[in-house]
Specification:
Elements: H1 3-22, H2 27-44, H3 57-69, H4 80-99, H5 127-134, H6 142-157, H7 161-166, E1 172-173, E2 178-181, E3 190-193, H8 196-214, H9 234-248, H10 257-270, H11 275-282, H12 287-290, H13 299-308, H14 310-319
Antiparallel strand pairs: 1-2, 2-3
Helix pairs in contact: 1-2, 2-4, 5-9, 6-8, 6-10
């Protein structure tokens, strides 16, 4: 495909993204579409199609095979999740092209997305481990008080890394025990409960530490600020807050901010919270996303197995010196 037609496709993609903004889609969705279309355009540069309208279902099948054989940045095959992400973005783009009248038919309509494995959540800590992590920061220092408040908030309310970093001071109401999450995953807002201990540390942080960290620098408008007064980034939260204090607390498994979120959900489930309530807390669109925690929390199942399974009952009898 020639450069002129490639340029037209990029222009249409830009128009598509502007339409998505007016429809209220989140910034993450825009990044996804941009990445997907760019990936597809690189493939089209090697093809003989003269125009966008001449792309066929066969070409889309070849694109899917191209993704399957593509190598990622580390020289490994492109993962199923990345393949699906690339295909979904292009498929949404083609649907928009048809809806706006730029194409008569959608060549991507026959694409079957690759089936993805659903791994268990990683980085889930025990109650003792998360307790040690929460108490690891030195709250006698401004940065330590900030880190303690952030960790308490993530464990209390199950917020994502980006959601925590995007919070404004006005989004947190410690008196009512509520946190307003704006523009969460999928562009969805939600209100989640805030625990009393987390609320107290947030009040302490705002009252005693935030201004000291900010100093004379311009206020970025976020609740949590970096050591140099600016907005915090995701790697800082993961590496220099969550992972650093997890290592200090002696947690052996690798932990990220998402691991703290998983820990919150798992402990709620273990405490017999309903899946529906956990779904609302985490901001999952479907209950299927929340049900993964059922595969993690097996303590009640273990108790039932020991109580009811004949071999387990026989094991107890043997341990008590009963008949062999």
């Amino acid at each position: 495909m020639n450069e002129q037609e490639i340029g037209r496709i990029r222009a249409l993609a830009g128009e598509f993204i502007r339409d998505r903004r007016t429809e209220g889609y989140a910034d993450q969705a825009e990044e996804h579409i941009t990445w997907s279309v760019d990936y597809f355009v690189e493939f089209l540069k090697t093809r003989d199609e003269e125009r966008l309208e001449s792309i066929t279902a066969d070409a889309m099948h070849k694109y899917q095979m191209h993704l399957y054989n593509q190598l990622g940045r580390r020289g490994e095959p492109l993962g199923l999740a990345s393949q699906a992400k690339a295909l979904m973005g292009v498929r949404v783009f083609f649907r928009w092209l048809v809806r706006r009248g730029y194409m008569l038919a959608d060549p991507s309509s026959g694409i079957c997305l690759p089936r993805q494995k659903k791994p268990l959540p990683k980085g889930i800590m025990t109650l003792r481990e998360i307790g040690r992590v929460l108490t690891a920061p030195d709250v006698d220092t401004p940065l330590g008080l900030r880190d303690r408040a952030m960790l308490e908030l993530m464990y209390s309310s199950g917020l994502r890394n980006q959601e925590v970093r995007n919070l404004a001071i006005s989004d947190v109401n410690t008196a009512e025990g509520e946190v307003r999450v704006k523009n969460g995953k999928g562009g969805v807002d939600r209100v989640v409960p805030l625990g009393g201990i987390a609320g107290r540390y947030l009040d302490l942080y705002v009252r005693e530490a935030r201004a000291k960290i900010l100093g004379w620098k311009e206020d970025p408008g976020t609740l949590f600020v970096g050591r140099f007064g600016g907005r915090m980034n995701g790697s800082t939260v993961n590496r220099w807050i969550v992972q650093r204090f997890a290592e200090r607390a002696g947690v052996k498994t690798p932990v990220t901010a998402h691991g703290v979120r998983h820990t919150c959900a798992t402990h709620l489930l273990k405490g017999h919270a309903s899946l529906r309530h956990i779904q609302r807390l985490l901001g999952h669109r479907s209950l299927e996303s929340t049900q993964v925690y059922l595969r993690v929390e097996v303590s009640d199942l273990k108790k039932e197995l020991k109580r009811c399974h004949p071999r387990e009952r026989a094991h107890v009898i043997e341990a008590q010196g009963g008949p062999q």
